[in-house]
Write a structure and sequence with these properties.
Blueprint: H1 7-14, H2 17-26, H3 28-44, E1 52-56, H4 66-71, E2 75-80, H5 83-91, H6 96-99, E3 102-106, H7 113-122, H8 126-132, H9 134-147, E4 164-170, H10 173-191, H11 203-227, E5 228-245, E6 257-261, H12 267-274, E7 277-288, E8 296-306
Parallel strand pairs: 1-2, 1-4, 2-3, 4-5
Antiparallel strand pairs: 5-6, 5-8, 7-8
Length: 307
Amino acid sequence: MARIDALSSKNMQTQGARQREWMRQHAPEHLQQCTTLMLHALHQRATGAAQNTVILGAGACTEIPLAMLVRASDELVLVDLDLAAMQQGYAEIPSTAQRRRVRLVQDDISGGVSPQLARLMRRQDWESLVSQGAQAVFDAAAQCLEQCRITDPPAIQTLHNGEFGLVISSLVLSQLFSYPLLDVLDHIQHIASTLLGEQERHRRYQEAAQAFRIRLIKAHLHLLRGLLDRGGCAVLLTDVRGFVFNVQGTDHDAAHRRTMPLVPRTFPDLIREDFTVVEEAQWEWVTDLPEKERPGRGYEVAGYVLV
């Protein structure tokens, strides 16, 4: 099963009102920073810009101040592959009048990258490749990544260019490339478990994976730019680095954590190729506390207001 196919069941445990309440206790800065950047973008939006708002990767709107955005919008469009999660967020809107201004669009924001990559992987003779060794396996995986077609920008059904005065990308960017890349490694683990972890030693695979990330980031940024009306603002929220820690009471400082970069170092430069950065903020978001043998987890997040 592709990671994206398990998205709905995963979101049921990691999104929604209960998770928001947990964040209020353990990650209040995360909620506040998200809300602040969206509020600032609303203030930056030109008076003559479209009064419609779209949220890409809306999910259950756990970090989204829905009531505030509905009041500031003629129409608020939620876009996500997980319809059940969006319906969960929609149900939290208290006013019937406000709900009438909200539209749900179920679509794959990546443009169908995971199934496209899966088709390329299925064409490989993995049994023969495994018999040839790790180099052959990771060269074949790299070739699949290199050949994977990425629609730039992806077309989202019923959304039109220049339709929105506020475009929000809500913590979805890193998932666009991490899920399909994890699918590749899941498959390699399935066919030859001894090779898992070997990918770090294979230059072609590493270069193909990085180029894959960059192509998807560029396509997503082009999607934001295309949807934005003249005078409008975009908010980009994304995980830029993950970390795990296993010591309580240390404020999760650098001495007690192991980090993993999620976006390329050139990420800020990629943003500035398409946008002017009006505001930038960085903060940490703890998603799980340590429990017995299981380490705690969190993310370093970057947020931008863009024009």
